[in-house]
Design goal:
- The protein contains 16 helices and 14 strands.
- It is α/β, with parallel strands linked by helices.
Length: about 425
């Protein structure tokens, strides 16, 4: 562990973080910092994973939630808290409610999968009431705030609160205490910025030379754009919510200021790459991650040249992945890797057209994985929606060329995700 710096500014003081660590004693698991040999070999670096996926509620969120709630003063009618979340924060607050004997109202979007709702009830037991309301998280958040204000309860924000930040900061404190080496790079996922603010605060004081890299999904670049594009905190009009654990439209007021001050960089990774890396970690290492928990690993590719020969820590933020999403994750991964392609092909409605397509357009190692042919008897030509899986990226260009040679007109659909969502 490195010696503390004497004049480095920080979001939370070391005393606050150490107090949070004492508060969390016996409540959380001090998750291991483990070298991953496969990633280390891939990037020619010593890559260590801070395994918050092994936490009590399978994410780091219990740290901030419990630290915040443990500081609440008793009220005449008892202590009641409210939160809004579709996932890990809800589970962290629910578990903290059960441990502290605090009554909690957990607001979740109406369409939240039953598996996530059941998890919240499991961790919270009789201490929590789940309220399903709102079509989007923003709707749910506003409903929760209105309910909280009307009853004068305490709102437990998922990230924009000093006590939350101090709790999340214990991830960084543990990592530095566990490391027997100097940490050259630390990669952290960012949704609202609570984890990055906390970990960044600790590293800036105890390991000021460490490069701190925040990571967001390309479809939800709220912190990235606020810092690097606008130079001010600004909400996005729309986001891609697929990486749901990091899909936040606007960073917090506190966390924006801290991430802007503390981080060396904030990078974006495509959702398809995150999907591919999640599957690789499962297939190669047997580690089950959620999409947001994979972000720090996905960012290594952009830093591949810089991290060679360095000591690298990736914070793995969680593993609450819904198994029903795996087919969609695989689909996005294959498209990103250039191994699955979709076309709308115009077939002549005459005998042998399909045979010609299969024999003359496709190669033996190329598989049709989706085929929808709409025959129209009053027309000479009919559209066919075709999905093709190939062995290597670039093979689709040969398929396009052979379709032209054989007289098939087509429209390539991979660049139209909204349209594909209606068909796949």
């Amino acid at each position: 562990m490195q010696e503390p710096a004497t004049s480095t500014p920080a979001a939370v003081s070391l005393d606050q973080v150490k107090q949070a660590a004492r508060t969390l004693e016996g409540v959380i698991l001090k998750t291991p910092l483990l070298q991953n040999l496969w990633l280390s070999r891939t990037y020619e670096a010593a890559v260590y994973l801070k395994r918050e996926d092994l936490q009590v509620v399978r994410s780091y969120k219990i740290r901030g939630a419990y630290n915040k709630m443990a500081t609440l003063q008793p009220a005449p009618g008892g202590r009641e808290v409210v939160c809004a979340s579709a996932g890990n924060h809800a589970q962290g607050v629910a578990h903290a409610c059960q441990l502290l004997g605090v009554r909690g109202y957990i607001f979740m979007p109406a369409q939240t999968p039953a598996q996530k709702v059941d998890k919240v009830r499991l961790f919270g037991k009789e201490q929590v009431e789940v309220v399903l309301v709102g079509a989007t998280f923003d709707d749910t958040y506003h409903e929760a705030k209105a309910f909280c204000d009307a009853h004068d309860y305490t709102f437990v924000h998922p990230f924009d609160d000093p006590a939350i930040v101090a709790g999340q900061a214990t991830v960084g404190l543990e990592a530095l205490q566990q490391a027997t080496f100097n940490i050259d790079y630390c990669f952290m996922p960012i949704g609202g910025g609570g984890l990055a603010s906390g970990v960044g605060s600790v590293f800036r004081q105890l390991s000021p030379h460490t490069k701190l890299i925040g990571v967001q999904p390309a479809g939800a670049p709220s912190m990235h754009d606020s810092i690097k594009v606008h130079q001010e905190r600004r909400a996005l009009d729309t986001i891609e919510s697929f990486v749901d654990g990091a899909a936040v439209k606007c960073p917090g007021e506190l966390t924006y200021q801290l991430c802007r001050e503390l981080l060396d960089d904030v990078v974006l990774v495509p959702e398809g790459q995150v999907c591919a890396d999640l599957l690789k970690m499962y297939n190669e290492e047997g580690i089950v991650l959620e999409l947001a928990g994979t972000l720090s690993i996905s960012a290594l590719r952009q830093y591949a040249d810089e991290i060679k020969g360095k000591n690298v820590v990736c914070v793995i933020s969680g593993s609450n992945n819904d198994i029903t999403r795996m087919e969609d994750i695989k689909e996005r991964a294959l498209r990103f890797q250039g191994l699955k392609h979709y076309f709308m092909v115009t077939f002549n409605q005459q005998p042998g057209a399909l045979r010609t397509f299969v024999n003359n357009v496709l190669q033996p190692e190329q598989d049709i994985i989706h085929f929808q042919y709409i025959k129209k008897n009053n027309k000479e030509k009919g559209p066919v929606f075709v999905g093709i899986e190939v062995r290597q990226s670039g093979d689709e260009e040969l398929i396009k060329a052979r379709m032209v040679e054989e007289g098939f007109s087509y429209e390539y659909l991979n660049g139209k995700p909204d349209f594909l969502a209606l068909l796949v």
